[in-house]
Amino acid sequence: MNSVVAGITYRAVLGRRRVLLLILLPLVLIGLAVVLRLVGSTDERATVTLMQVYAIGTMLPLLGLIAGTGTISPEIDDGTIIHLLSKPISRPVIAVTKFAVAASLLALFAAVPTFVAGYLLLRDESGIAAGFALGALIGGIAYSAVFLLLGVITRHAVTVGIIYAVVWESLVGGLVPGARNFSIQQWAQTFAGQLTSTDFFKPTVTMGFAVPAVLIVTIGAVLWAGNRLRSLSLTGDE
Q1: Measuring CA to CA, which residue among 145, 178, 188, 143 is closest to residue 162?
Q2: Which positions, given as ranges, span the membrane (predicted)?
Q3: Sign (positive/negative) of CA torsion 177, 178, 181, 184?
Q4: What's the pTM?
Q5: Environment class of residue 119 by beta-carbon count within 10 Å: exposed (0-12), middle (13-18) or buried (19+)?
């Protein structure tokens, strides 16, 4: 990991208008938790539904898309990536650094608000707050790698990412039993289930599958992104 590249990337991502979405999406989650508490809907069923449908099912992939593509796609699109590639820095190191930045942003804007929302509703009851925060953290790491890779291999990363998040993650991965094993969203819920004891939440993917799946996808996507960067010439053409 390169600290100079990390600093430049943080400033670039947080300095663009996309940071407003990074802030807005978790604020909506916390706002929904506050509303549910005010109207007295602080039971486990309502909290689990909020965590599954919004925190993990909607907010997390969207934040992953914003952070993952935002660390590199704009630089490729406007050509400024060439200045970075011209420096004596290993391309895989650049990819790892971009991934680390995206993953840290997901930890801050996804995992922390998920815990806060769960704690507002149930405090420490049934481990729901901590469980879904863990799920958001692990899922965010995987999403960061996948969307970083999309940002490197296609100039239509946002469009492809939205299609992936909506069609595969939400529809196919959420509704087709066999496809759930290949959904980051489902892997995140599996990790959440390790700390959650409520009767209203039962993950459908086993830890024996989710753990190696997260490792393979995350490491594979980052390595692929680093190798792909090697194919970018200093003129900006592949």
Answers
A1: 143
A2: 19-39, 51-72, 93-122, 128-150, 157-176, 205-225
A3: negative
A4: 0.91
A5: middle
62-71, 105-114, 152-161, 227-236: least confidently modelled range: 227-236
Residue 16 contacts residue 74 (beta carbons within 8 Å) = yes
pLDDT per position as a tens digit, 164-190: 887 877 776 666 767 788 899 999 999
Whether 154 and 167 have beta carbons less than 8 Å apart is answered as no
Which of the four pLDDT bands, split at 50, 70 and 90, describes residue 236? very low
SS (H, E, C) 161-205: HHHHHHHHHHHHHHHCHHHHHHCHHHHHHHHHHCCCCCCCCCCCC
User: Which tokens is 193 given?
Assistant: 């289930």
CB 233: neighbour CB atoms within 10 A?
Answer: 10
Q: How far apart are CA 141 and CA 233, in angstroms?
A: 29
Query: Within 10 A of 235 (CB to CB), how many other CB atoms are there?
Result: 8
* Residue 106, pLDDT above cutoff 70: yes
